[in-house]
Amino acid sequence: MRGILTLAGEGTRMLPWSRGLRKEFLPLYDRGQNGLPVLKPIAHRVLETFVGAGITDIVLVVQPRDLAFVQNYFTIDREFLARHSHHVDRLRETREFYRTLGQLRLRFAVQAEPRGFGDAVLMAEPYVGHHPFVLHASDAILVEDHPGRIPRAMADLREQDDLDAVLLVRRVKHPTRYGVVEGSSSGRFRGLRRLTVVGMEEKPARPRSNWAAAAVYAFSPRLFEALRAIARGNPPELEVTTGVARMISEGGRVAALVLDSPSDWRSVGSPEGYLTTLRRTYREAERPPNRRA
Predict the structure, then answer these.
(1) Is the Cβ–Cβ distance between 170 and 258 less than 8 Å?
(2) Which of 6, 115, 190, 203 could tie 153 with a disulfide, CB 3.0–4.6 Å?
(3) How many other CB atoms are there within 10 angstroms of residue 260's CB atom?
(4) Contact partners, residue 92, CB within 8 Å, separation at least 6
(5) Can you give the residue ranges of every domain in the chain?
(6) pTM of the predicted protein model
(7) Nearest-5° angle of CA 30, CA 36, CA 40?
(8) What is the CATH number of domain 2-286?
(9) Is 251 exposed, middle or buried (0-12, 13-18, 19+ CB in 10 A)?
(10) pLDDT tens-digit map of 104-116
(11) Exposure string (b/e) for 122-137, b if CB count within 10 Å is 16 or more?
(12) Cβ–Cβ < 8 Å for 257, 169
């Protein structure tokens, strides 16, 4: 099982802050090794979600201008540790992060131009090949008691039932803003409601449901074929939802798992979303373990 983590969007909803800066490196809170709140970049937390799901072979998709910065953050810097070795407490989280990095295989794919989420995924194909994979955008997080539980369930369901895709959905009030899933209930899996998906559309004018996709997916490599077959329009952005819709139209088998609490998916793609998520993660970080908001 491989993982794809995308950090290649333009972040226009966060302007002017995001001009030249990555929104995926905005800080959020987490519970530290000493039980107290600490700050971690969003992309750091998403990487830990992959690790919690048992995924250790991960491709990060970045823009050319951000490659050196992202590589630097996700590379073990032993000289930094040596320079600050007298700050034992301050280095605790960094040392733990480096221990995690030492267990991973990280590769970096470059999306030369910002041509959409689906195009970013295609840039990772040479590193993923014919393997199934979990895809996670890095401008949002899943708030879980045990990080990685839901992505692991998605990957296991996809493998168990030989599906082309497993989506993660939540019920929303304004579905015209999202990728909307059409489907029907088909039991439960690992405690989560399951849907059989028969359609998907990006920001539809007339939504057929209130099920919005969160940007976490478990895919077979068939997605790459579907994305490559889609004709680019003007503008030439390519969406993952379009690839899913094409797979369905060609007889692909797609399911979805439903988040019990829609607020467990927190987007940081807008100033308001970031503030809400920052507050939520602080509450979670200062709360004793095993007690949710």
Answers:
(1) yes
(2) 190
(3) 11
(4) 32, 33, 34
(5) 2-286
(6) 0.94
(7) 30
(8) 3.90.550.10
(9) exposed
(10) 999 999 999 989 9
(11) bbbbebbeeebbbbbb
(12) yes
